[in-house]
Amino acid sequence: MNAAAMRSITEGPDPAVRLSCAQVWAGNRQRISLLELPGLTAWVFSSAAGPGTAGGDVHYISVCPRCLVTRVALADVSGYGHSVATFSNELGSLMEKHLHAIKQVPLMQDLNKAVREAFLGEHYATMVAIGWHRCWSIVSMSNAGHPPPLWYSGERDEWNWLESGCPAQPDRLRDLPLGLLDDSGYNLLVFKANPGDLFVLYSDGITEAVDAEGNELGQSGLVSLAQSLDHTSVSEFGVRLMSALDGYRNNAAQTDDQTIIVVRRNQVKAEAE
User: Fold this and answer.
1) Which residues pair with 174 in a beta bridge?
2) CB distance 106 to 69 below 8 Å
3) pLDDT in tens, 259-270
4) DSSP string, 31-62
5) 22-55 burial, b if ≥16 CB within 10 A, otherwise e?
6) Range ranked top by mean pLDDT from 54-63, 115-124, 160-169
7) Could you report the per-residue pLDDT of 69-78, keeping only the tens digit for each?
């Protein structure tokens, strides 16, 4: 991680950006951002491992025209350069097409088809998407071969993995990375989110970080780090999580793109304001 990125993490992100209705916010370049969304607050950290500031991790956040449905998506595209740019454009167009829908399955299916047509099997992408309906307090999640998000339940004061839990169907492969098969299916997990709930989306560059002995952090290591941190503030939690990750790597240079998106369900009073 370069000096500028370290200074940004230490000093915290720029003042929060409030996304307006019918807005899509996206990127795959190095950044640290704090976003105010309808009923949510999100902190985004993204850092590319290769030359330049652009990487293979692509993140998108959208708000529907009525400010009811918010979607957060994180994808990891195989390759760099043209393949990432093509995927980013397809994802952006389809995020706008599905702005109103809280369910991710149609988005995943359309994107899988677009990736197949664009890359002809030469490239693929893993992706996880979370939809949020402000009035219903409902969260939906679909996953296309991406590491499962972390979920902190404020009501139960516990951390869990967000996984569909749907049984496999022998006649149809499901939840595969985008672009592998024409007819891949995608499961949908739907549940109610309470004030104070926290969601952590991340790329595999986070869980595949290694310590001085070459041991991978893994999912168990990531949840252990998360459990040890104060999560009262979204931005402070994100900063401390990245600091803990650097400590695990003994501050060695990262070898893969790293993205973390921390999303919190705001308190009801904050929503009313």
Assistant:
1) 185
2) no
3) 999 999 998 754
4) EEEEEEETTEEEEEEEE-SSSSSEEEEEEEEE
5) ebbbebbebbbbbbebbbbbbbbbbbbeeeeebb
6) 54-63
7) 999 999 988 8
